[in-house]
Design a protein that fits this description.
about 210 residues; alpha/beta
């Protein structure tokens, strides 16, 4: 039996944060005038700097230098009030064994807060990797390659659990297998990976890798 390292994305994969993160934009920029769900679909998995640049084009004005810090403060407030794990995640983590880590485009402080608020921190310990530490963001593969190396695994012995197209692209570019979480059954990129719609299905998918 060969060990496989499971590399988990954070937002939209472990924690139900996508809508909250985009609600923060609406709270600070009501002129966007659309739903948080719509924004979540538009910006899923993307780097904050790229999102802000797109928003500036859409509202036709530059945002102040302090906008990012205000945005992160608002996200933290919303996390404290209503962040929850993705349905079935805790049971999935309890049912699975083997090495695992989190690799996210978010700053480490945001990753740690999200895991603490949702009660998932104990499942990962210090095995947390942030794009801000690597200096590379999805769809570039460096974050996943760094996580794999730090965990002591080759890319071929890693599987990435993701919910975004850019994350899937990064994992495939890194030479890793991918399980794409798509609960809403959207028509998203998935020709080269396994798509699943419920966290209840993930333990069996991960177990199947131990015999390959």
């Amino acid at each position: 039996m060969t060990q496989v390292c499971a590399i988990f994305d954070l937002d939209g994969t472990l924690v139900d944060s996508e809508v909250l993160c985009n609600q923060a934009f609406l709270d600070l920029l009501p002129e966007l005038n659309e739903s948080s769900l719509s924004l979540a679909r538009r910006y899923r998995g993307k780097k904050l700097a790229a999102i802000i640049a797109d928003i500036e084009l859409r509202i036709r004005r530059a945002l102040p230098d302090e906008f990012e810090s205000r945005y992160r403060e608002r996200v933290a407030e919303l996390f404290d009030r209503g962040l929850r794990p993705i349905t079935g995640v805790e049971a999935m983590l309890q049912a699975t064994t083997g090495p695992r880590c989190v690799a996210s485009s978010a700053p480490r402080a945001k990753i740690e807060k999200a895991l603490q608020v949702t009660g998932l921190a104990g499942y990962f310990g210090d095995q947390i990797f942030s794009s801000y530490e690597v200096g590379s963001w999805k769809p570039e593969p460096q974050l996943f390659l760094y996580a794999a190396s730090s965990m002591g695994f080759s890319p071929q012995r890693c599987v990435v659990i993701e919910d975004s197209d850019v994350g899937v692209q990064a994992a495939l570019s890194a030479g890793m297998r991918v399980f794409m979480y798509a609960p809403d059954c959207e028509e998203r990129l998935a020709p080269s990976c396994t798509t699943f719609s419920s966290m209840d299905d993930l333990p069996e998918l991960l177990e199947s890798l131990f015999n390959t």
